[in-house]
Write a structure and sequence with these properties.
Largest sheet: 2 strands, parallel
Mean pLDDT: 76
Strand order of the largest sheet: 1-2
Order of helices and strands: EHEHH
Number of strands: 2
Radius of gyration: 17 Å
Shape: extended
Low-confidence stretches: none
Distance between the termini: 37 Å
Helix content: 25-40%
Structural class: alpha+beta
Strand content: 5-15%
Number of helices: 3
């Protein structure tokens, strides 16, 4: 059996690993392992979170709407909830 090592568990790495798994290959995925915040409601889906959270706008957009990027903002155009911002932090030893 062919074995593949995927380094990085971002969107591209996960998509690539899933494609390989669907073809029957053995996949090992490694990542830096940064610790994030705990999941608010791991038992539910995205739509249900909107009704279960006391303040879904604050969770998804941030206290000062820092999770929103408007067209025309310099750089790549995508947003991320502030609760997931740890994904973009650099390791301390760099």
């Amino acid at each position: 059996m062919t074995r593949v090592l995927v380094v990085g568990s971002g969107a591209s790495g996960v998509h690539f690993a899933l494609s390989l798994l669907r073809k029957g290959l053995h996949v090992t995925m490694v990542d830096v392992g940064r610790r994030g915040t705990h999941d608010i409601a791991p038992h539910t889906n995205f739509s249900a979170l909107k009704s279960e959270l006391d303040d879904p706008a604050r969770y998804f957009l941030g206290e000062r709407f820092e999770g929103v990027l408007l067209p025309g903002t310099a750089g790549e155009y995508y947003g991320i909830p502030p609760s997931k911002g740890y994904v973009f932090t650099e390791p301390a030893d760099i």
